[in-house]
Amino acid sequence: MPWPGRVHGRPPGGHTSRVITVIVPAHNEARVIGRLLRQLTSDARPGELDVIVVPNGCTDDTAEVAAAFGAPVRVVSIAAASKREALLAGDRAARGFPRLYVDADVETGTADVRAIGDALRDRPGILAAAPGRQLGLDGCPFLVRWYYDVWARLPQIREGLFGRGVIGVSEAGHERIASLPPVLADDLAASLSFGPAERAVVPGARAVVHVPRTLRDLVRRRVRAAQGVAQIERTDQAPESTARTRPADLAAIARDDPRLAPKVALFLAVAVIARFRARRTVARGDYSTWLRDESSRDTTG
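RE: above sequence
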């Protein structure tokens, strides 16, 4: 998610240190926003959560679905279809820290958010935290399952905070990411901003990440990911590592379990195709074409 600049404005009442703020940018997410909000609020204690949904440039009833939940959900709508602007609006409305940014199409619950908030408050030196990742593979063809079987085994995927749809920061952590430039691979950029001792994948917390249900949509998603990595590498603040998949990691997966060799080959083919297509758009400087995967938002299957 694109990280907002430094926004310190808070509503009357000032800092509320025991409240966990959850900001949910949502562009035409009426199909899935209710699923997330039900889980987020189902077990919340009074005053524990402040959930700010920011519908941005919506042409569906995302705002109405979210508003129907009432407290602790607040709706702050903006006209621009911009995730970055939505996060800025959410930060302006936020009351304190810890602060979580949650994609509207994932699933995570009260206990998960509580565990992340506790880690950010109580674990010395932890500035950013995320839940464990559970892939929603229901309804996916075997080729998509093969791809994610390899993807989930990569060291950088297991250890990084990106690709989870949820990332939380303390106030100090927010200061760290506030200066990041706007990029497509925003969660990756945020994850790379923290050293291993400053970030944590929280045991016991989980987020369900719904993956594409077709190979074509998988490639579209991977093209966008490759564009995001390339964009990070072109910024003035590019880190030494952008968590690109290393051939040595793929070789190690196939070597440790030879039965995975066909899956590794598929993974490599998708990666090559995605990077080739991304290279053309990056050469044109096109980071605005939105390659959204709609199949993962299908809640009927």
